[in-house]
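Section: Multi-chain targets

For targets with more than one molecule, the full set of components is provided together so that the structure can be written out for the assembly as a whole rather than chain by chain. Components appear in the order listed by the source. The example entry contains two components.
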Amino acid sequence: MSERKGDDTNAGLLAPVEPGDQLMAWQALNLALNRALADDDAVFVLGEDVGLYGGNYRVTQGLYAKYGEWRVRDAPISENSFTGLGVGAAMVGGRPVIEIMTVNFALLALDAIINMAAKLRYMSGGQVKVPLVVRMPGGVAHQLAAQHSQRLEHTLMNVPGLRMVAPATVQDHYGQLSQAVRADDPVVVLEHELLYFHSGPFSDGVGLPAMHAAAVQREGGDFTLIAYSRMVEVALAAAETLAEEGIDCEVVDLRSLRPIDLVTLQDSVAKTHRALVVEEDCRFGGVGAEIAAALNESAFFELEAPVARVAGADVPTPYNGELEAASIPESADVAEVVREWAVS
Amino acid sequence: MRRDLAKTFLYDMALAREFEQRAAEQYTEGKIAGFLHLYPGEEAVAVGSLRAADPGDYVVTTYREHVHALVRGITPAAVMAELFGRADGCSRGYGGSMHLFDMDRRFLGGYAIVGETFPVAAGAAYWLRLNSEPDVVLCYFGDGAVNQGTFHETLNMVALWGLPVVLICENNHYQIGTEIHRHSAIAEVHKRACGYGIEAERVDGMDVLAVYDATRHALHHVRDGNGPYLLECETYRYRGHSMADPGAYRSALEVSELRARDPLRTFRKRANEEGWVAEDEADGLAEQARSAVDEALAFADASPPPTELHADVYVEPIHLYRGRP
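Its structure, encoded as tokens over all components, is:
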């Protein structure tokens, strides 16, 4: 079971956000949900401990008191059925935001997500709309062991009919969830347990980039580092190190894993001619494999080196802290591979 | 009564029997592919329960759902065209026999994974309850579905939150080839509802009038704000689980015993005896049903195939690649 994180000094809903405010990612998600619930009666939130308790990562804090139990519903531990309940409600006019406490538990809800949410529109000949959001935090946190330290993007990115976003910045936690709630297709919002209590700049009222567009987080001409979710900060740290060595890296934040914004990657590679994908999920058959294949097919003559991958080890996550750290990418791992291929 | 209602029952059941028998023929001729699960023997359940429902009520069904679709008002032509995989089918040829949909008639689909109807029904019911709507969800499932987790998970939630659902068990006593006493510790499905504090009753699913009356009672119970209701309809399927199943796991004697209680024949006899529908009038209704299926077959045969492979995967398609996808 996950433990509630952070202090309780900021209980209740957020005060109005001032320009230039720093927010934590959980606060940005909370603001997005608060506004979605206020703006649209079709929106309701449902999941384990999202109500009275306020969410295991505080994301739904204060919403139960403001919107009541029918719109912020504490669910029993029945992931498949309460996610399926979200599908049924979405079919008839609701815009449910289902919270699955962690992606590890979403394995129990794969029937609702893959067999139902993703397929109903197509199977019905276009009659059914499933405007469902399924939020779930994943990734390797701090020594939670194999059953609480998974990534599920490789499983879910391969499902036609689903969308999946994986925000890295505080701004995107707000922006992408806000857009996911308004989207008419089912969207999985893949959050990261270690990002909830990271602070970052938040600008309110600015135009939001499209939910599925990749974003260049750092410009550079020598090497393209492609990452998503928490690995964006790993890539940025590697880019800092490499800059001191005279290797100028461009860092692209994918933001979305289905679809993947290949155009932004193609543009970047046309400039740098080298690319590396950083992913926390296991190496086999994943985001890096997909991007390497797609760039191979579509940008082969731009490439001066094979598309490289730095990925999680193909092991269940170990409990021991040192082994755990060795199982996921760190910035030094990224820098090492870049040095290997950057030499022209 | 019941004269008009009796005529409706007789026509619906005649149409159901005729439609399924002709569908079986089309399957053997290769016009229908995939899995085809037929309903002969069980007609009284879909007909009796759905005729008790209002047009505003939602319907969620299993993969053995042609008759539910027909009784709900989807035309025989649109259902048959779907079985043929054609563009004029009720799911435009993308769903097939197991995935009939008609959102205008609040027919929320046929589901081919056993146990999926429960959460979908709970979701529609949650939305109705959240908005204080008077409508109810009719959720169908077979006896095999009661050992799925979704049965127990959903019964808990709909009872806990008082959601407007009538859970209708089409207990035909077999999960494919495994008889209920070999798959369930408690073979009386209605008894399982008490574990969740849900009112339940068992009814003769071969008697269309009994199913109709019991469903009306259940719907009143739910509409009056008393929470969900479970109705177990004891019935029997004459054919195998699907066209691929010869049904070798049960005796000819068993099948013939159940056929002796045939829902069409028994209700026709009763309607005649009660003076609701005379024999010649019943013949006329059967003839009408045959013509409707003739027309449906001609329509399905003439309907074009769907051609758009990539249509309707998403409401909002997004293309973020240059060159070949």
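Residues 217 and 280 of chain A are 18 Å apart (CA to CA).
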